[in-house]
Amino acid sequence: MKIFINKDIKQFFLAIAAVMTGFLLLSQIMVRLLYQQFSVPLLAVSLLAAGGVLSVCFGYFYKQNQIMEAAVSKINDYLAGDTSARIDCDHEGELYRLFHSVNTLAAVLNAHAEKELRSKEFLKDTISDISHQLKTPLAALNIYNGLLQGEAEKLPAIREFAELSEQELDRIETLVQSLLKMTKLDAGSIAFEKAPENVADMIHDIALHFAYRAKQEQKEVILSGDDNIIFLCDRYWMMEAISNIVKNALDHTKEDNAVHIEWKQFMSMVQIVVKDNGSGIHPEDMHHIFKRFYRSRFSKDVQGIGLGLPLAKAIIEAHDGTIEVDSELGVGTTFVMNFLIPTKL
């Protein structure tokens, strides 16, 4: 029976049985010594008394076990998502005091969850408002800057400042977009639309996006992988994550360096690797590269804002994936992304 699963209860019943057996034996021995014979009536009464005591104890513990089972059932209902589930605690006793405390804890957790939900909704609406408010002035500034560049064809100094202004505007736009994406991920306001996607197609699109930059900087993006690997993801966000890692690789490589993007499939996962032969990551920075706005004191990159890798990590983990990094100064850096294949688990 379930009540005897508890070691303490089992020992309790064994102790009572031992006491009753001892009492029965001692009483019979005393009767034998006094009257030179065993007393059958005393034996019967003793057995009835022992049975009664054991029955009362069993009934008590059985009832307590039923109460605990009902409480555990309610707790499991709560854990399964029924936030209205509560344990009956309308009686007196220490056990019901415990149940009352558990109910109070559930109510507090519900209040915190509702507050968190309201905060996320407020943050989601605020993000949307900020996004719309920033798009208009940035677009206007880009237009004004373009007109200024057109009017400054014969004024080298002004044209140079206009080009620098354009670069800074691009940086501001990138920063704003990255912040919005990161905040949306934090707020849980992004519903990933996962679908079977061809990995090779995504990687080729990413390489095409960086082709012009690589050519201008005299770098090479080399692709290697099976054309038929399919994996479940949100194409837009997954390309965002991998693009951020490729951009990071290009940022930390020099002329004639190469960025290798490889992808392969194993029994239970898809693996994507981005490897470069650039400057590498200083050992002091290895444990900080996924922190937001982290800037290494050893880095010569003055353009980065420190959001690309944290954003990539957040997206990858939202797809139940993992990302690992291995690097050696002066040799290069390797980012390894692993994604489980649910259908093959």
Order of helices and strands: HHHHEHEEHEEHEE
- What spatial order of strands do you see in the largest sheet? 2-4-5-7-6
Strand content: 5-15%
> Based on CA inertia axes, which overall geometry fits?
elongated
Topology, number of strands? 7
User: Which structural class should the secondary elements be placed in?
Assistant: alpha+beta
From the alpha carbons, calculate the radius of gyration and give it in angstroms.
36 Å
Give the overall average pLDDT: 82
Please tell me about this protein's structure:
The structure is a single chain. The protein is of the alpha+beta class. The chain contains seven helices and seven strands, in the order ααααβαββαββαββ. It has helices at 7-35, 40-79, 94-151, 156-187, 199-216, 235-251, 308-318; strands spanning 195-198, 220-225, 230-233, 258-265, 269-276, 321-328, 332-340. The strands form two sheets. It has a five-stranded mixed sheet, with helices on one face. A hairpin with a 3-residue loop joins β4 (258-265) and β5 (269-276). The chain is elongated. The two termini are 36 Å apart.
SSE blueprint and pairings:
Layout (H helix, E strand, L loop, with lengths): L6 H29 L4 H40 L14 H58 L4 H32 L7 E4 H18 L3 E6 L4 E4 L1 H17 L6 E8 L3 E8 L31 H11 L2 E8 L3 E9 L5
Parallel strand pairs: 2-4
Antiparallel strand pairs: 1-3, 4-5, 5-7, 6-7
Helix pairs in contact: 1-2, 3-4, 4-7, 5-6, 6-7
